[in-house]
Amino acid sequence: MRKWLLAVVLCIPVLGRAQSLEQVIRLAQDSTITAFQSRYEYESREAHFAQFEALRKPQLELRFVPNYQRIITDPSRDYVYIRNFNRFSASAQLQLTQKVLGLGGEAYVGSRALWSEYFASDQRDLPREFITMPVVMGYQQSLMGYNPYRWEKVIEESRMAAARKQLNYQLHVIAEEATRRFFRLACAQGMLDMCLRNKQTADTLYAIAKEKASIAMVTLAELRSLELQRLNAANALMNARNEEQLARESLAAYLRTDAFPAGTRLSVPTVTPGIPMTNEDALEMARSNSPALQQQQTAVSEALQQQERARKERGAKVGVDLNIGLQQLNSNFFGTFKNPQFYMLGAVTLSIPLMDHGAARKGHAAAVAWRQREEQALNEVERALSEDVLTTLDNLRSHEQMLSHTEEAVALADEVFELTAENYANGLCDINTYSLAQSRRDNAYNQHLSALANYWTTYYHLLTLTQYE
User: Fold this and answer.
1) 416 contact partners, CB below 8 Å, separation of at least 6
2) Is position 310 within any domain?
3) Per residue in 45-82, pLDDT tens?
4) pTM over 0.85
5) Which of 37, 40, 34, 45 minimizes the C-alpha distance to 298?
6) Do 279 and 416 lie in a common domain?
7) Are 207 and 285 part of one and the same domain?
């Protein structure tokens, strides 16, 4: 009977093709819809982060802007000081910009040119103008102390870290779901094998009892009991076949494969890995690898950014734009490059809210409240994660003990059933005692299968929480 336990209940493949738990998990992580969606989501975030980093490098841009104006004051008058005319202009600018990440401003260097052409209504052309700025260098930024580039770096790097953790987390979730469906099918196959054996036993006992009944060696009540047992075994076998088919179809549908036709056996691991970490290690790994915790930390950073921005913009706003270069104006394009004049330009913008009905102050209060909300949510995510990890570890230890106890129960139930069957064959016990021993053995097998499924699904859930490899 011990050999039967290893070969059937533990589903070691004896017929058809075998699929191990590791093979099923690898197949799930390669082919399920969730796996594809997770990879596409990660690739999208990776491309977005690469775009973010590219925009922080020097940017070279060529801009060309044509412009046409039709000025009409009074068609009946055409004085010198108030003319009707058409104006066409075009400007071109080549500029190299670089964000100054430490200060939060932007430095630029480039070259500009402007061409203006006037057309009077009486066809008397006004002088054309060319303005060139061969060299322009400048710097602009807000003077309020708010550095958006620093916050962008913190937030984008946090989002990228969350995306990496989310991809690994989803792969572990897929492994967890594949394990759940794997053991549903494994348990269904074990139950089917047990029901087949019980049906064969019931048929054999009923056939023997019918022969004995013909010579009055078996009572009518005992014969009817064996007939009822045979009928119940047939019904249980039918239900077990239906459950095995549903479990097999569920696993195949999740894996998006036809690799599980009827007769495919599952190879359940016979050696458990044990608990790979202590409570402290599990909590530390879960906090380090949790995508939900990382995403909430990103949300806190975004709230802090909005709070600082609202605080800086609560009062007066000051900005500066300084640039120096060479400039010349001439009616001939090449003439603008003769004797270019050096210039220095500084622009300061000052904005003072005189009456905003407390809008800036209330905006800052709203940002503070939202930051507090996100920090509270972060604490809640961390608390729920710690609770889940510790509960999972406790359950895993409990399932490990249960698995050991059910293995002992199966061995003892096999021994008791063999002795009872021998006694029943020798006429030392009645059919009720034999049925009770069989029922206890079946119950021991059911508990063992349930303990196997609970242990492995809990084990992979722990791997999902900690992303332990």
Assistant:
1) 437, 440, 441
2) no
3) 999 999 999 999 999 999 998 888 776 665 555 554 55
4) no
5) 45
6) yes
7) yes
